[in-house]
Specification:
alpha/beta, Rossmann fold, N-(1-d-carboxylethyl)-l-norvaline Dehydrogenase, domain 2, 2 domains, six-stranded parallel β-sheet, three-stranded mixed β-sheet
């Protein structure tokens, strides 16, 4: 959907009151897109100062999650499983007041068990829950390339879809239950495995004297290239490890995936290996960096020094 909605579409989008809980880097970027499209948006963040700039863009900044009880739909994007429960169904959550939103859309990456608990407890209070994790980072959001996987009651999905469409490029509906949680976890398992494969193959060609820029240029234009390999290429070429997704977050998702594999008796040998590589990297002090620092770890493991190549690289994320 276009960033600038037509007047009649803006009017329709503004007909419902929407709440948003969690203004981190991703939450801020998506909330900005909603506001740009004319959505009537109220926002809450535990640290109010992070949400206040959205007030200048037209959002209503509230002091507590229960202040969002009169919203038609409330989106949540917070740290992890317990955080989701805390802001929704626990005491003081958005469903603990007299006024309760009929739909909650949770975009946090959490495990299917917690997701099922959230849905059941919310249903007891008359609220439908959609699981709607996303794929991307703030730059992907800004370019309009964010993708969403969603599951939950179909009627709630159809009500929320016009707002989910504003997130970015594509929304995929995968079922009436908590299926989207496992889909996103599997996505992140593949993300980690591909990132590690990029890192170790860069180290291999690097030891032979080939620049990372040249190797990845070839890779990205081949059948093995992808949106992901292209948009991570600048980080790998120029060692830009400003965090978009940290090692502990990647470790968390690997552990969710490995737990699901054990519960469903699906072996995940490649995922298990990369999980251990990530754990080792955290122990060696990479934790606060972007997971692209798997590259430096691969070089160090190969007995090599690594330096930025300082090349101009297109990440493929032009605006949509």
């Amino acid at each position: 959907m276009s960033d600038v909605a037509a007047p009649e579409v803006r009017s329709e989008l503004g007909a419902r009151k929407i709440g948003w809980i969690g203004i981190g880097r991703m939450g801020y970027a998506i909330a900005t897109r909603l506001l740009d499209a004319g959505v009537d948006l109220a926002v809450y963040n535990r640290t109010r100062s992070k949400a206040e700039p959205l007030g200048d863009l037209g959002a209503t900044v509230v002091d507590g999650v229960t202040d969002l009880g009169d919203c038609d739909i409330v989106f949540t994007m917070v740290g992890g499983p317990q955080d989701v429960l805390d802001v929704t169904v626990e005491d003081g959550g958005v469903l603990s007041g007299e006024r309760r939103p009929p739909i909650i859309v949770d975009a946090t990456t959490i495990d299917p068990t917690t997701s099922a608990e959230l849905s059941a407890r919310a249903a007891e209070r008359g609220t439908a829950v959609l699981a709607s994790p996303v794929s991307g980072n703030p730059k992907v959001v800004a370019s309009g390339n964010l993708t969403v996987v969603c599951s939950g009651p179909k009627d709630a999905y159809e009500t929320a879809l016009p707002y989910l469409d504003l997130f970015g490029k594509k929304v995929t509906y995968v079922g009436e239950g908590d299926e989207a949680r496992l889909v996103k976890i599997c996505h992140n398992l593949m993300l980690g495995i591909v990132a590690q494969t990029m890192a170790e193959t860069c180290a291999l060609v690097g030891k032979a004297g080939v620049s990372r820029h040249d190797y990845l240029e070839f890779l990205n234009d081949s059948v093995m290239g992808s949106v992901f390999t292209r948009y991570k290429t600048p980080a790998y070429v120029n060692l830009d490890y400003r965090p978009t997704f940290t090692w502990p977050l990647l470790r968390k998702d690997f552990e969710l995936g490995l737990r699901a594999g054990r519960e469903m008796e699906v072996p995940l040998p490649a995922s298990a290996l990369v999980h251990q590589i990530v754990c080792e990297g955290i122990g060696r002090g990479f934790g606060e960096l972007d997971f692209a620092a798997l590259l430096t770890k691969s070089y160090e493991d190969s007995g090599m020094d690594i330096t930025a190549e300082n090349r101009d690289v297109d990440d493929g994320l032009g605006p949509r």
